[in-house]
């Protein structure tokens, strides 16, 4: 999976911002709040040779170190878009390559969410210009992969209802259930899910909810889960506490996974050096884009660590890119690649859903399907000539 730099796509003429919204079929309660609705922001890059689309992955509300969609939009409008246009103006051909975006980044998490969407838009334009799919760009032969489903913390839905829904999901083809937990429900909830699902892959996602407990209490509570044959416990602690993560990894039999704590390739190097986790949830948007995600996957593969690609309730455009990344050899756990039709009432991009136990991967030109005209509204235009 070695990405090749493509030739430019002509001069950058304009960048537009478009918005869609989507409602989740079932609200997902997590330790940091409930997801029931999603605003999705898209970037449309228009060049002299064509166009490309990128999707901003940030959620409406900030959580655990990730910026809100509003913060990312404001930073795109005030910093990144003017900077992109200024950089393009300085070039003789007026163009910019997707491989150059990371180099423009000053380095905050908000910057990385911005650069991820911009990189996606440029790459989409480049791939379409060359009639290449993202899988061809990465030399990936995968046509379809197993997919998973997510469940929230019990609240409005009881443990029994959630366990019944997990069973329905597995009967519909999901190969892995990823359940949000917190210390108050973990043992009862995961025991019920294990009973309903038999030997199906089960992940627990704590979203930092054990972070207020003393470290020996965290070890004791997580050790209680060791008999449930979980594939991993994701992000039990707050984002940056790598030394306590190392203690957990050494003390708890269930593999410990970093999610929110993995926000740059540099952090991956530290996590590997500290032996802070043995599983990594790789989210390209938080890492700064697809190339940064590939760098982290490469690091994990070299260190013999396990990864999966994590989703943020994307629409079909960004989801399609996650599906292709999930074919990386470091991803030996099931990734978040199920099409949005499995969790949204309506996907603005209408990416095709799974068939039986497999999610077919995007195999057309570009990164993924664009949002349909009927599902999007224009919310900003930035012309090269007027900036
Ligand atoms: Mg997580």
Comma- or semicolon-separated keywords:
387 residues, Enolase-like, domain 1, 7-stranded parallel beta sheet, 4-stranded antiparallel beta sheet, 11 helices, 13 strands, 33% helix, binds magnesium ion
Question: Compounds present?
Answer: magnesium ion
Cα-to-Cα separation, first versus last residue:
38 Å
Strand content: 15-25%
Helix percentage range: 25-40%
Strand order of the largest sheet: 5-6-7-8-9-10-11
Q: What is the global morphology?
A: globular
Characterize the biggest β-sheet: 7 strands, parallel
CATH fold type of the largest domain: TIM Barrel
Please identify which CATH superfamily of the largest domain we are dealing with.
Enolase-like C-terminal domain
Structural class of the helices, strands and pairings?
alpha/beta
The helix-strand sequence is EEEHHHEEHEHEHEHEHEHHEHEE
Number of folding domains? 2
CA radius of gyration is 20 Å
The first-level CATH class of the largest domain is given as Alpha Beta
Describe it:
There is one protein chain. The chain is of the alpha/beta class and 387 residues long. It folds into two domains: 12-131 and 371-386, 2-Layer Sandwich (Enolase-like, domain 1); 136-360, Alpha-Beta Barrel (TIM Barrel). 33% of the residues lie in helices and 20% in strands. The protein is built from eleven helices and 13 strands. It has helices at residues 69-90, 109-129, 134-137, 159-171, 186-197, 215-223, 242-251, 265-274, 284-287, 290-302, 316-325; strands at residues 12-30, 33-47, 51-56, 144-145, 148-151, 176-180, 201-205, 232-234, 256-258, 279-282, 306-309, 359-360, 377-383. It has a seven-stranded parallel β-sheet with strand order 5-6-7-8-9-10-11. It has a four-stranded antiparallel β-sheet with strand order 3-2-1-13. Strands 4-12 form a two-stranded antiparallel sheet. Helix 1 (69-90) packs across helix 2 (109-129) and helix 8 runs parallel beside helix 10 (290-302). It is globular, with a radius of gyration of 20 Å.
């Amino acid at each position: 999976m070695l990405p090749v730099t493509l030739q430019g796509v002509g001069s950058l003429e304009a960048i537009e911002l478009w918005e869609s919204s989507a409602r989740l079929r079932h609200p997902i309660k997590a330790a940091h709040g409930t997801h029931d609705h999603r605003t999705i922001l898209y970037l449309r890059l228009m060049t002299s040779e064509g166009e490309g689309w990128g999707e901003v992955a940030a959620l409406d509300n900030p959580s655990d170190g990730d910026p809100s969609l509003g913060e990312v939009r404001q930073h795109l409008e005030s910093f990144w878009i003017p900077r992109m246009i200024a950089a393009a103006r300085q070039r003789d051909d007026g163009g910019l390559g997707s491989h150059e975006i990371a180099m423009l980044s000053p380095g905050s998490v908000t910057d990385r969410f911005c650069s991820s969407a911009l990189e996606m838009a440029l790459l989409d334009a480049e791939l379409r210009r060359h009639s290449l799919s993202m899988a061809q760009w990465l030399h990936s032969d995968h046509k379809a992969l197993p997919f998973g489903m997510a469940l929230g913390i019990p609240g409005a839905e009881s443990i029994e209802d959630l366990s019944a829904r997990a069973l329905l999901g597995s009967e519909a083809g999901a190969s892995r259930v990823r359940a949000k937990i917190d210390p108050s429900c973990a043992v009862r909830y995961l025991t019920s899910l294990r009973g309903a699902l038999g030997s199906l892959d089960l992940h627990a996602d704590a979203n930092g909810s054990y972070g207020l407990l003393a470290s020996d209490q965290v070890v004791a509570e997580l050790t209680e889960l060791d008999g449930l044959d979980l594939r991993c416990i994701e992000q039990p602690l707050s984002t940056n506490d790598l030394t306590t993560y190392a203690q957990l990894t050494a003390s708890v039999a269930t593999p410990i996974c970093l999610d929110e704590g993995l926000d740059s390739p540099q952090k991956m190097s530290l996590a590997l050096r500290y032996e802070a986790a043995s599983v990594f949830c790789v989210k390209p948007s938080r890492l700064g884009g697809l190339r940064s995600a590939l760098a982290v996957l490469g690091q994990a593969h070299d260190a013999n660590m396990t990864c999966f690609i994590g989703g943020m309730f994307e629409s079909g455009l960004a989801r399609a890119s996650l599906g292709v990344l999930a074919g990386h050899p470091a991803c030996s756990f099931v990734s978040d690649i199920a099409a949005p039709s499995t969790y949204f009432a309506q996907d603005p991009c209408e990416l095709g859903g799974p068939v039986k136990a497999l999610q077919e991967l995007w195999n057309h030109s570009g990164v993924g399907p664009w949002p349909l005209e009927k599902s999007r509204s224009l919310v900003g235009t930035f012309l090269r000539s007027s900036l």
